[in-house]
Amino acid sequence: MFLTVTTAKAQDDVEYRMELGGGVNLTAYQGDLSNSLFGNAQAGGSVLFRAILNPRSAVRFGLGISKLKGDVSRADTRFPDITDQHYSFSNTMADLSVTYEYNFFPYGTGRDYRGAKRFTPFISLGLGMTYVNSKNGTYDYSKGHAEGDDFVPEHHTKKSVITGNVPIGVGVKYKLGARTNISLDWHLHVSFSDNLDGVDDPYRIESTGLFKNTDCYSTITLALTYSLSPKCSTCHKDR
Predict the structure, then answer these.
(1) What domains are there in the chain, each with its CATH number?
(2) Taking CA atoms, which of 29, 52, 93, 149 is between 20 and 30 Å from 163?
(3) CA-to-CA distance for 7 and 36, rounded, in angstroms?
């Protein structure tokens, strides 16, 4: 009888089906005009929703807004066709992504699922869409013409760049209370475009392949979420 009562009390917290919240992030550009992982990092904000599959896995939907910033003068590589190396950019960016998260430990209060831990590292992988507003238009160095000793790239006045990306990340979660959660994660977003910085193919070397010579960006996100939609407390617990 004592063992039965103890087990019941050990699992008296309910499990939840979802989390909703927001956070702050730092976004750093990695591409032709960058030489460091977190150089020119820009602050932004994000909202996120998690669909909890079970204590070890979840699907996360996230929307983040920030800036992408870079300066060719800070890059290690010299681009002879970028006049005097004075090109810089500061573009508004939005990222919409869906990622699958796998927790290293079952995640919970410890009273909702047997063996659950308040703290767990996790890894994630998914797909996303990137929108960038390049206020100065874009320059395509794979196309253009010579003017004397200078090469003039093809200039496009279209300011919007929309492309896909693959986010790959690691992070940690901690359950502050029965319904409150905090997480810190880092994601590298490998985009399908070489135009997030407004400069396409500055090497003037034709590239082929989905991720060949494309721009990337990384995000560090600190988020606070609230658990919603409790499961039936008398129903079978996930195993």
Answers:
(1) 14-230 (2.40.160.20)
(2) 52
(3) 52
